[in-house]
Amino acid sequence: MTVQADSAMPTAPGEPSELASRLRVVLGRLFRRLRAEHGFPITHAAVLGRLDRDGPQSTSDLAAAESMRPQSMAQTLSELEGQELISRRADPADGRRTLLEITAAGRSALADDRRRREGWLARVIEEHLSRREQAVLAEALALLERLAER
Questions:
Q1: In a domain, 64, yes or no
Q2: 126: domain range?
Q3: pLDDT of residue 9
Q4: Which of the residues 14, 85, 98, 150 has an alpha carbon 20 to 30 A from that of 52?
């Protein structure tokens, strides 16, 4: 199924390399726009989201999961801790290790941030895409999810 969202979009599927290039550009633009809706830096939201989803983790685990240097992650965690959005505690399985966990204030800040970002995106989808285009977007999301799993 091919949808023409605007006159610049071809009506026939392109070569995989062309599709990859266009997808990278479009996702980059969308990501930057969503980032503008954040209440705090994207790295803070990513760490809070990971702690919320996956539970307490060490600095090195978080750095690896977010593809960050441990020093950069330590700085991010220090900032989050200073805002009382995360807390530290000893790992019950290994007292030499420290685990970081999201606080109630962190969950609240994360929920507010998610509502702001998702609210903007939902509003744009509703106001600027027809019902048919929204259905096509839903189908495309399934494809994007498959790509993300590879």
A1: yes
A2: 36-150
A3: 54
A4: 150
Helix (H) or strand (E) holding 16: helix 16-36
Query: Would the pLDDT of 133 be above 90?
Result: yes
3-state helix, strand, coil in the chain (%, to 5): 65, 10, 25
Asked, for residue 54, whether it belongs to a domain, the answer is: yes
Label each residue of 19-74 as H, E or C. Answer: HHHHHHHHHHHHHHHHHHCCCCCHHHHHHHHHHHHHCCECHHHHHHHCCCCHHHHH
Entry pTM = 0.65
Quickly tell me which residue has 């392109």 as its tokens.
Answer: 14
User: 5-25: buried (b, 16+ CB within 10 Å) or exposed (e) per residue?
Assistant: eeeeeeeeeeeeeeeeeeeee
Please check whether residue 7 lies inside any domain of the structure.
no
Alpha-carbon distance 112 to 85, whole Å?
Answer: 13
CATH number at residue 48: 1.10.10.10
The tokens describing 60, both together, are 């090195």
pLDDT 10s digits, 55-66: 999 999 999 999
